[in-house]
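If you are new to this repository, start here. Below is one unmodified record pulled from the training split, so you can see the exact layout before writing a loader.
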Amino acid sequence: MRASPLLAIGPSAPGPALRRGALIAIPVGVALLYELGTGAESKGAIATGALFVGFTALDAPARTRAAWQAAVAPLVALAAALGVLTGPSAPLAVATMALVGAAAGYCFAVSLRFAIAGLSVALALLVSQGLGVPVSHTLGAFLLTGFGGLLQAGFSLIAYAAGDRTEGGGEDGWSTRGALRALATNLSLRSTSARHAVRFGAALAAGVAAYWLLGMEEHGFWIPLTILFVMRPEEEETFHRLILRAVGTAVGLVVATALSFWLEDDGVALAIALTVATAFAYGLLTVQYALFTAAITTYAVLLADTLGEPALEAAGQRALATAIGIAIAGIAFLIWSNPGEGRGRPRPGHVAPPEATAR
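And here is the target side for that same chain:
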């Protein structure tokens, strides 16, 4: 899934992608209406679980999507709980992020869909580490995030039962044997996937260390969040995403700040705005990366506003964190690039057997 140039659309057609994004956003919206509309103590935890798991198998038909989401939801819940446990300690947070990030990065050896599942787990870890949730809430983080993930999977099943038989992306089936073979085959630093795993884990750990060193207590996790979304195994694709991330973030900050002042403290209206932002984020991920970034930035800043932080302050934190994350991702490739990339020589690729792809 390569990001399209700034003024281009693709690889997915906008219409079907946006319709599917709207469908997957429904469980997130339901959770948001409950949590924000009623002032529930979960404060968005259920919706966040549904949001994370919703990225999994985003391109798949409803039944396949439900199976993937049900499998990933417990892992996302475990990652959220682990993040609460390790978040208060800088050394633990950095080390845990390095290990989980490396594992997520190595998932690219199998397939893009498997990689997105791994990234969803890493995403849950880094967000829960950065929110400063008390350790006493570890079980609650596990249960609420897991419930949100299963809510997403359950809705996909409902969509299938209701007649959603739309075919999705081009991946042709799951083979455990093929996946294990791909993981074993790529277990060498000559493999792009293995090099990406090491580089990705190290960059995410550096992002966590950066917000601890800089004292960014509120939204420091936006630094590794930027790294997670922009870094790919290929250097060219990563630097392409860095530019689109910067442009999309700037647009999203303007939109989110304007919406915050317009909607003020109306919980229901904010829940609807967050749901719309989620739908656009899901729908635009495979259509235009800059617009996806604008949508997910709008979601992040508006959600921070609902938790009591002024929108302008949250926007400033987002801008700074994005800039730092972009810098770390770029430096990671400058320090340790893939052999031959950008120098006219063949690049070592990962070797994933056809049967390892996932659907």
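Two things worth knowing about this chain: Residues 14-336 form one domain. The first helix runs from residue 14 to 37.
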